[in-house]
From TrEMBL:
PROSITE patterns the record matches: CYTOSOL_AP
Protein name: Leucyl aminopeptidase
Taxonomic lineage: Bacteria, Pseudomonadati, Pseudomonadota, Alphaproteobacteria, Rhodobacterales
Domain of life: Bacteria
One Gene Ontology cellular component: cytoplasm
Amino acid sequence: MPPSFVPDAPGARVLHLVAAEDLDRWTGTLAPEERAWVTGAGFKASVGALCLLPGADGGVGAAALGLGDAQARARGRFAAAAAVPHLPEGAWRLDGTDGPEDAAEQALGWLLAGYAFTRYAGTGRPLPGLIAPDGVDAPRIAAMAAGEALTRDLINTPSNDMGPDELEQAARALATEHGARVAVTTGDALLDAGFPMIHAVGRASPRAPRLIDMAWGDAGPTLTLVGKGVCFDTGGLNLKPGNSMSLMKKDMGGAAAVLGLAHTIMALALPLRLRVLVPAVENAVSGAAFRPGDILRSRKGQSVEINNTDAEGRLVLADALALADETPPDLLVSMATLTGAARVAVGPDIAPFFTHDAALAHALAAGGQAMRDPVWQLPLHAPYEAMLEPGFADLDNAPSGGFAGAITAALFLNRFVTETPRYAHFDIYGWQPAAAPARPKGGVGQGVRAILHALPGLLDAGDA
């Protein structure tokens, strides 16, 4: 079960959030024996410092968590989450939050910190539960945490248990939970249905490629989410070296992210019409594999020269984006673990995005800042379009030279979105390399809270 809030309880304990500059004032509110305990423990309210306070029964009666100084707080996110692994189980409430927005942030961080992936080992230790702080939108916070837990579960599951069929089943389970509709096109039927590049990328695997198409909602503006679902990426005939293949179970992180976001949207019954498209494939090696030098025809009609079979994600996304563009939504967003160049540019924490729409870019940047979900706009630099044009075909899937790889990938995808005026593409990493507050090591959603926060201003619920 995803972490959620616990009911209020008479014996609930308090976690005090204490800024360094507020330490003297806070200790002044304590009983003399508590003040002596805090002083004796050497608690200075430095960032992440935890002081457990004794209760009348000799157990833990309360706790204090240091927030550090203003500089430390500016660098940190979800401060209360740092305490969750170290607090005893039972019900807790927060004290010392700086208004409703801070309380909501700390509460979300607490729930995110309660995530554990235990499918293959362990059961997870009993964790402390949080009583929803006053003044926060508890259902919204819980829905975001549940959506993130779904994303993490999907990414963390190894590819032997998370192939195209299992990804389809996860989408079907989500649809059943929320009353959505699902249509799936599988195997050779992709050719008849006009998805030749999805078929080409996935045909070498015995696990049939497919396009998952989920729809929910009957009124309101339209939002289409497209997520890259490459369930494992060997690189194809341009085979990856072993150390580059070790994390390729996460190459369906874009699909996991949009499914997690879809859960949150549907759980909150947002007034919109949602469509989710996931091209689900395994990029494998066999005699049926597509080859360097092949020229493929896309759903949109453009021909694509294959100069690297390891640049396969943009191929499957292109067919799915072309389908989305045939009935242009009010907002179209694609998410993919697409390029190593994006990681070189901004590292693992930040999700770069691309859009020609200035208002959309502003809304996403503001959402990322408000939701502690760091995103950053990279440019769709028009002069680089020439790098996509190989001469033998309309487009090159892997321009030579090694420069601007994230930008040229985004420009490639933009060629397949010609009718939809408002489109953004996210090039995410989908993985937390080392544990941090609210982000255990492993699969992680990126950009989804920024999108969720931006939706009300981007989609007019009054539109039909």
